[in-house]
Amino acid sequence: MAITLQPSLLNEMRRFDIEVVAPEVSAILASLVVQLTLLEKIKDQQALDPYLQKVWLDIESGRAGDFSIGSDGSLRFRNRWCVPKDEEVQKAILQEVHQPPYCIHLGGTKMYRDLKVHYLWPGMKKNIGEFVAQCLICQQVKAECWFPVGKLQSLPIPVWK
Q: What predicted TM-score, i.e. pTM, was given to this entire model?
């Protein structure tokens, strides 16, 4: 709420000889952009994917195995979202998981371990490896694996007096 609309606050300020001057507002400009969430994109693309369409038919006929329909209406495999074969959606998932401000770049193996709990798509591990290989921060932080250069030489045993 604006300061000018609060009479008690204005009276308090006048008591201390503080003057509040607010220009008249003739119009307010606002913009609202509605975008699909990531899970809505996955759900929309599931209906367009030929393989997942076959799985939908198997579910309807009772031959789905571990596939099911989630409470949100999306296709699941053992309670993991079935991501369609759409590079845009897959890349959006990888970016969402890997590049938020609170993310620490853990590398491909740990990213795969975290992602496979919630998502599933063919070639997921390969896609994650390629994505992490292109991440500049991951390459800068990556620990080098150094193997010993050679065998250690044993020290001569001193002679006791």
A: 0.64
